[in-house]
Structure formats: structure tokens, C-alpha cells
Write a structure and sequence with these properties.
Blueprint lengths: L4 H27 L11 E8 L8 E10 L2 E12 L6 H4 L2 E3 L2 E7 L2 E6 L6 E8 L12 E6 L6 E2 L2 E2 L2 E3 L6 E7 L2
Parallel strand pairs: 3-11
Antiparallel strand pairs: 1-2, 1-8, 2-3, 4-5, 5-6, 6-7, 7-12, 8-11, 9-10
Length: 178
């Protein structure tokens, strides 16, 4: 069996990309998320009703969602809920982290460009599972805790509700290419 030199080079590049991604994840785990300690506060469930440019890429808008008997009861008050720090637009927007350049390309979408491997490797990513708006089915239900400051400010007021990411949302590659 003959393996071409170009194939071996490509396999080495893919292995290097995977090693750098693993190293970045390890560094992020060591640094920890900048979430203020919650202490003994209790959380609540919310139904996501809106997101997008009107609400900035760091928060979603939700209404309290109570489980009563066999019915769901929705609260009347709309509240801002901060996304987990590593899912926030401000965390990655136009930043370079460990040689990987990030740019926001849409609602819950980003592009990462890695130039550490001797060539430019571009990767498009989305948050998965996605945040689904009010008119989507099934609705997104979020478990959040009330803090003094979730690290996001809207109109001069700190957002106090922090999404605890019980759905395990994370950035997922969609495709490679420019």
C-alpha cells in the first residue's frame, strides 16, 4: 500500500488541529468561568421568548415557567437572562485567544480562524442545542439562578439572572471553509 506524501501532511495537520483544540479546552477548564458565586440561592425555570440584536448577544429574554400539576404556568414578567460566559458574544467577538481569531457571524454563530498550524484553518460554529425563540417548537426552557451581577449590563442595569446551562449548550463545528 502506498501513501502519498500530501496525504501524510494533511493527516499531520488534522492531528495538529485536534491537539491545539484539546489544549485550548484544557486551558479554558483551568481558567474557569467568570461566574460570580451563587451562594445558597435557588433557581427558577424560564421559557425563552426572545433573543437577538435587540437583546445583545450576551442575554436572552424569558418568562418564568412553573410546573404545576399537569399544566405549565407562565409568569407575566419578562426578565433578561445572561447566557453562560463562554456562549456570550462579547466573550469571543473580534478576539484572538491562543492564536485562534474569533468573529461573530450571526445570532448564536461564530467563525474561528486558526493560523498556528502553518496555514489558515477556518471553522464555522453554532451553539448546540440551539436557543429557540418563542415561536419555535418545542420552546427553550432555561434554568437560571438569581445573582447580584451575572456580568452583563443592559441599559445601565446589571442582569441578575444567570443561565446554568443544564442543556449543556456548547459551540459545535458546522463546516470548514472560508
Amino acid at each position: 500500500m502506498t501513501i502519498r506524501r500530501g496525504t501524510l501532511r494533511h493527516m499531520d495537520q488534522v492531528r495538529d488541529d485536534a491537539a491545539q483544540a484539546a489544549e485550548l479546552r484544557a486551558q479554558e477548564r483551568q481558567q474557569g468561568d467568570p461566574i460570580p458565586p451563587a451562594g445558597g440561592v435557588a433557581g427558577k425555570w424560564f421559557r425563552l421568548i426572545a433573543q437577538g440584536p435587540d437583546y445583545n448577544g450576551d442575554v436572552v429574554l424569558g418568562k418564568e415557567w412553573d410546573w404545576e400539576a399537569d399544566d405549565f404556568v407562565e409568569g407575566a414578567e419578562e426578565v433578561y437572562i445572561a447566557k453562560p460566559p463562554r456562549l456570550r458574544e462579547s466573550y469571543y467577538s473580534a478576539k484572538t485567544i491562543n492564536g485562534i481569531r474569533f468573529s461573530v457571524t450571526g445570532e448564536n454563530e461564530r467563525r474561528s480562524t486558526n493560523t498556528n498550524v502553518g496555514y489558515e484553518h477556518v471553522q464555522n460554529e453554532v451553539i448546540y442545542p440551539p436557543y429557540l425563540n418563542d415561536d419555535d417548537s418545542p420552546p427553550t426552557i432555561i434554568y437560571a439562578i438569581d445573582t447580584d451581577n451575572a456580568g452583563v449590563e443592559i441599559g445601565g442595569t446589571y442582569v441578575t439572572w444567570q443561565d446554568q446551562n443544564v442543556d449543556g449548550r456548547a459551540w459545535q463545528q458546522t463546516r470548514c471553509g472560508a
